[in-house]
Amino acid sequence: MNFRTDLALERREAFGSDIPRGVKSSEYKKGGTEFTKIRVIDKDGEKALGKPVGTYITAEIEPLTRRNSADAKLIEVIAQEIRSVLPQEGTVLVVGLGNRDITPDAVGPKSIDMLLATRHIGAEVSKSVGLGELRPVAGFVPGVLGKTGLETAESVKGLVKMINPCAVAAVDALAARRLSRLGNTVQISDTGIAPGSGVGNRRYALTRETVGVPVISVGVPTVVDASTLAEELSGSDIKKSEEGENMIVTPREIDLVTQRAAEIIGLSLNKAFQPHLSVDDIMMLVGN
Fold first, then answer.
1. Which residues pair with 28 in a beta bridge?
2. Quick one: how far is CA 52 from the chain centroid?
3. What is the pLDDT of residues 162-186, one digit of tens each?
4. 3-state secondary structure of 279
5. Residue-by-residue DSSP string for 262-274
6. How far apart, in whole angstroms, are the C-alpha atoms of residue 144 and residue 99?
7. DSSP 32
8. What letter does residue 206 receive in the DSSP assignment?
9. Is residue 15 within 8 Å of residue 48, measured between CB atoms?
10. Considering the entire predicted model, what is its pTM?
């Protein structure tokens, strides 16, 4: 497969109607949202899709330039899918990957702005103010290597040792193969993530092996590789140049896409962690 994408769905689509060995795929609908679940079950599947063994859930939603990020029905169904790959109990560390100063790469840091951090709130306090028993959640924005001198995997591993979460939930911008996927696709996975992959600056992966606990990932594609886009638009292979391979394309409305993607992911994570709270309550608590 001579194209760049972070979406397991696009890699499966490259095979047409022939699902490769080691891969299982199913489609279903929840609350008006179309989902595709792809399971890479063995080494054959890994080789075919270029994705680690695990589960990849893709939600296809209305373009973020046209939809309200406070759609309670959408937040509920995405939260259900996040819960399906998340340990049911224990503290969760949410990591917002990316560079806040680069708009297409700011989904992760902006999602932490929407996070309901609860690890510091005692059970008695939360019950006394009518919030019930809150699951402990902590948020962290590790920044980028060029500013901190630290690999994200290094800083996250240190935090994991300190607070002992049951899982890490990593949020990041992704790269897609098709323009039609930008800003209207959410991918959830239980296989971890490589920070910076969405903008072509792939770093050490965040996985169970590197940080010591399960790592789920949630992301929205915000960019397309220029060479990949040229092939899609021309309908044929093109001669790739170094300049083309180092260039990415992003929508004109990327500011809006990034902000709404961060809001939907942040609210969906909150609902996944605190299913007893309503979306309206969560929005009030995070100041949205």
1. 35
2. 16
3. 999 999 999 999 999 888 899 999 9
4. helix
5. HHHHHHHHHHHH-
6. 6
7. T
8. B
9. yes
10. 0.91
